[in-house]
Amino acid sequence: MAFISLKNINVAYPMKEGGLHTVFSNLNVEIDRGEFVSIIGETGCGKSTLLRLLLGSEHPKSGTVLVDGKPVKHPCRDRGYVPQKYSLFPDKTVIGNVVFGPIAESFSFLKLFTPDWWKRRHDIYEEAMDTLRRVGLTERDSRKYPDQLSGGMQQRVAIAQSLVMHPGILLMDESFSALDPNTRKGMQQLIRSIWLESGTTVVFVTHNLAEAVSLGNRVLLIAKDHEADCSKIGLDMTIPDNPNTDELERIMHHLEGGTLHESVSNLV
């Protein structure tokens, strides 16, 4: 059984002028544990919708979303989410942002300031600092506020927020698109190394073909099927380990053609 399974997924939104806009019709996707799946496709094809279904913040009109054999009903700690725009609390320091989730999860009001609370709080801060070092930030950085950080540093904090919860799945929605090219390259290397080290299952939405191919070991192209008036999986490609130049050129050409020029009916 696949670790992540979307079965017969139908998603449709009501339109202002009446009727429904169908995003997915009978969509089926399976993802194995430990895969790094890059999802690409043109704007409006449903990439972020697919991510929200996996997160549990949105539900299909019909069909089933399963993680490890269990239905996804709502967001939980096992599915970390890193959005395009940073979700940091402006009034908290870097370390305050990273420890917020574990502390909120670990303690009720009745347990505050008990001996167990102080010990657990100390452990959470230690682990948060270790996680910040892991993503390339220092103890000095941990005392700063979000408005004192560069875009790349803020994104590192957002990744640390997710990692400190030990998610089995990391969902990333255009997480590097607002970064300058040099910072983006560094973040790509960081998330790739974290994936190789941890074995976390990563689902990574991007518009950037080179990024999709260089990061993922599998690429899903979501394409609009104009005949069916919905989006479907146009291509599902496994990326070989350490591909040579010819393989990369072939993969890029195939994906670029599918994204820019061909309908899904010509690709499947």
Enumerate how many helices there are, as a single number. Answer: 9
Q: Low-confidence parts lasting 5 or more residues at pLDDT below 50?
A: 260-268
User: How much strand content do the residues show?
Assistant: 25-35%
Major pleated sheet: 6 strands, mixed
The overall pLDDT average reads 87
- DSSP summary, beta strand count: 10
Structural class: alpha/beta
Q: Return the string of H and E elements.
A: EEEHEEEHHHHEHEHEEHH
Description:
This protein is α/β, with parallel strands linked by helices. Helix content is 39%, strand content 25%. It is built from 9 helices and 10 strands. A 6-stranded mixed beta sheet has the order 6-7-8-3-9-10, with helices on both faces. The chain has a 4-stranded antiparallel beta sheet with strand order 2-1-4-5, with helices on one face. α2 packs across α3 and α3 crosses α5. The longest helix is centred in the middle third of the chain and has 20 residues. The C terminus is likely disordered.
Keywords:
39% helix; 4-stranded antiparallel β-sheet; 25% strand; alpha/beta; disordered C terminus; globular; 6-stranded mixed β-sheet; 268 residues
How is the topology of this model organized?
Blueprint: E1 4-14, E2 20-31, E3 36-40, H1 47-55, E4 62-67, E5 70-71, E6 79-82, H2 94-106, H3 115-134, H4 139-142, H5 151-163, E7 169-173, H6 181-198, E8 201-205, H7 209-215, E9 218-225, E10 230-238, H8 245-260, H9 264-267
Parallel strand pairs: 3-8, 3-9, 6-7, 7-8
Antiparallel strand pairs: 1-2, 1-4, 4-5, 9-10
